[in-house]
Amino acid sequence: MQPITQVLTFLTEIEKLKNVLRKSRPVGLKRYENSAEHSWHVAISALMLKDFANDEVNIERVVKMLLIHDLGEIDADDIIIYDSETSANKNKERNGMIRLLALLPDNMGEEWLMLWDEFETGDSADAKFAKAIDRVPPLIHNLHDEGHSWKKHNISKEQVFNLNKKRIGNGSQTLWLALEEQLNEAVEAGILK
User: Fold this and answer.
1) In CATH, what number is assigned to the domain containing residue 149?
2) Would you call 66 exposed, middle or buried from its count of C-beta atoms within 10 A (0-12, 13-18, 19+)?
3) In the record, which residues are listed under signal peptide (predicted)?
4) Domain range holding 149?
5) Are 43 and 134 in contact (CB under 8 A)?
6) What are phi and psi of 120, to 5 degrees?
7) Please, which residues have CB within 8 angstroms of residue 13's CB and are 6 or more apart in sequence?
């Protein structure tokens, strides 16, 4: 198979991400977001919020991470973040990434798998910021949808604050403080309990 045909095969296969439904609904809509929409949203969010990163980041690397970070969900499906941080779930996602990236020619997938692994470990400044940004749309969705997915999945305010304070604060303390204020308002309004 020619290299260009292999890339086209990969691009066709990742269309399946559009069929992976997430647990939150886009602002103003009563349908669930798909993972491809989420990837677009976090990529543009990173571009808009890059100046608020705790450390200097390579925004091109961050955007690449965010565009691929959920491709493994094609095989593993989406699991709400408050339940997904298990090694079994992460192994299933990584195996999905390996399967997809093997479709690419000439070891092209190696760079992308390294970026995916870097995102997952969250050790570099780029990965910390990417992981922070990954949390923004689900919070926005819940804040503007009366806490729909928090309520549906019995997510407590302690879970929301603990996970997001660490995840977002590691990448952007400024962003966390702005979102924390909105979350506190949601608690006062009875949206988050």
Assistant:
1) 1.10.3210.10
2) buried
3) none
4) 3-188
5) no
6) -65, -40
7) 74, 100, 103
Six token digits for residue 70: 């959920």
CA distance 158 to 183: 11
Per-residue pLDDT of the chain (193 residues; tens, 9 = 90+): 899 999 999 999 999 999 999 999 999 999 999 999 999 999 999 999 999 999 999 999 999 999 999 999 999 999 888 876 788 888 999 999 999 999 999 999 999 999 999 999 999 999 999 999 999 999 999 999 999 999 999 999 999 999 999 999 999 999 999 999 999 999 999 999 9
* Domain count of the fold of the chain: 1
19 φ/ψ angles, rounded to the nearest 5 degrees: -100, 0
Cα(163)–Cα(183) distance, rounded to whole angstroms?
13
> Residue 71 falls within a domain, yes or no?
yes
Instruction: Please indicate, yes or no, if residue 123 is contained in any of the structural domains.
Output: yes
**Amino acid occupying residue 117:** D
Residue 72 lies in a domain: yes
Cα distances (Å, whole numbers) of residue 82 to 52, 136, 177? 25, 15, 21
Q: What's this model's pTM, rounded to 2 decimal places?
A: 0.96
Q: Name the one residue in this structure whose structure tokens are 């990173």.
A: 46
Look at residue 156 and tell me if it is in a domain. Answer: yes
* Listed residue (25, 144, 163, 17) closest to 83, CA to CA: 163
